[in-house]
Amino acid sequence: MANRYTAITKNQGDWWIGWVEEVPGVNCQERTEAELLNSLRITLREALEFNREEAIKAAAPGFTEVELVV
Fold it and tell me: Which of 30, 46, 50, 66 is positioned for an S-S bond with 36, CB 3.0–4.6 A?
């Protein structure tokens, strides 16, 4: 099952700017809305992977993982 996130987008002159509502710091700027949405997906994936790696490093050794459903 895919996780779902919300993109907030805005056309400002020649640019589209956007943010991922649920994840601070994930924002992009592109020339078209399609390019913006693609960049937001890529940036979100990278941010989640980076955060995952940092959390594991901070907790190691001897950590456990528990799935949270909200």
Answer: 30
